[in-house]
Write a structure and sequence with these properties.
Structural class: mainly alpha
Radius of gyration: 20 Å
Helix content: 25-40%
Oligomer: single chain
Order of helices and strands: EEHHHHHHH
Number of strands: 2
Length: 180
Amino acid sequence: MCGSQPGVPPPSGTGPQAARPDGGRAEGRRCGGAPRRRLDTGELLVGPPKSRAGVRTVAIPSAIIPALRDHLDDFTDPEDDALIFTGARGGTLRRSNFRRAADWTKNTKKIGFPGLHFHDLRHTGNTIAASSGATLRDLMERMGHDSVRAAMIYQHRTAEADRKIANAMNDKIAEALPSN
């Protein structure tokens, strides 16, 4: 069962299993981002995140709140420890059954992104966050990274970013020049 381990502090708003935008029944869910290990008995053990940085609250864009509310209303049980994303029979999605359960290949083709991997969504979101002008520390906190090296992966150089830097330098020069 999701989040049933004694002594595991509940991460507040981590990962897809904890996204309740209105502070409703998903608040404090423990499943998002938690590593899962399959024991020899077949039991699925949900553990704490890989690092302390994995326990965090992350702000979400208000534009996605209506879709999250619809999903929660249509597909999520009302219990506080209910999973937000499940398999067809309500069970935990696992790496081994996710692509099939989500009909991933068909659905990514349908939306015009054949070959898209699930983790590409995290990479895209983190790249957008990095292009927002956030500091490296802000990005590390948001992404749940303990190391600068991991967060630097999302620091792509772009012509747009280079233009913003040049414009900011131009503005500082203009401020320093005497007015005519």
